[in-house]
Amino acid sequence: xxxxxxxxxxxxxxxxxxxxxxxxxxxxxxxxxxxxxxxxxxxxxxxxxxxxxxxxxxxxxxxxxxxxxxxxxxxxxxxxxxxxxxxxxxxxxxxxxxxxxxxxxxxxxxxxxxxxxxxxxxxxxxxxxxxxxxxxxxxxxxxxxxxxxxxxxxxxxxxxxxxxxxxxxxxxxxxxxxxxxxxxxxxxxxxxxxxxxxxxxxxxxxxxxxxxxxxxxxxxxxxxxxxxxxxxxxxxxxxxxxxxxxxxxxxxxxxxxxxxxxxxxxxxxxxxxxxxxxxxxxxxxxxxxxxxxxxxxxxxxxxxxxxxxxxxxxxxxxxxxxxxxxxxxxxxxxxxxxxxxxxxxxxxxxxxxxxxxxxxxxxxxxxxxxxxxxxxxxxxxxxxxxxxxxxxxxxxxxx
Length: 399
Hints:
The protein is mostly helical. Helix content is 78%, strand content 1%. Helix 2 runs antiparallel to helix 3, helix 3 packs antiparallel against helix 7 and helix 5 runs antiparallel to helix 6.
């Protein structure tokens, strides 16, 4: 599938779950300026906000048993970060619209159908796997709540300031069930509007660099065939024109990398903080608890796995962009300029163009969190090692 259809499908889903219209074409998906749609969006995000506020209150001033207190802290931190991530994307809606339009157009005429099918498959696998991991984690929290209910306590998934632990009234039960439903809807908004959307954009940019690399590599074969069919001067002129077009596409991809960082940089940076910070807290719950049930252990394990899985999707796909961009220098250098006869005046111009373009491509194309920390494979491994080191330190002090 072409980028146009993939992103349009994503924007349709984002619109349907109430996050607004991110599509750049007017009156194609829907009107998010309608009063009814604005009311739906306001109500939806107000519910998310109040639930997160009650989670924060439960963590700070709530009186709950140790296990529910730990859950309240975990959810308060995680859902606060989720809300910030959602609003960071919503606040950049116009930027995202323009980004989508530009991302679709760049390199579009040179995209290979087989490569596009591979890209679409990878996007589906990444987003579907993340969807399963997130809802697998949520299902474990529901299972633990059901276990508590069967043992004579009350059903609970997320812990909010109201109802209190001792409150087992019908209204309290309704509030707890309603909070669980809100949790599942909020996770859908997070996956589709923020995390899955960000992953899809990163994968698309990666394949744009692959398409550009294939374009430069094809120039050499085309120039060699043109030398056999046409006048060397005409063939050299065509190579120069095609090389300049490739340089313009490369310049546009560099610009789009910066635009992606503006639109989704906060999402990736916050995920970096959430994955490392929350993981330490969750792992300590497993290590220090003497009465942790199997289901309770599984819910914490799934939560930690979901946090690192998403971080891996962000950092590894961002790292792939850096890697694919680094291969452009060699592809540009072997674009065929060396096959141009030395007596042709264009040969000197070609050589200068290739040297300048290769030098530009050798500058590392690295996406950053908070404009400081590189989003690469190395950072992902560094976060995992750092998280384990902090966990081991706290664990040793508490023994």
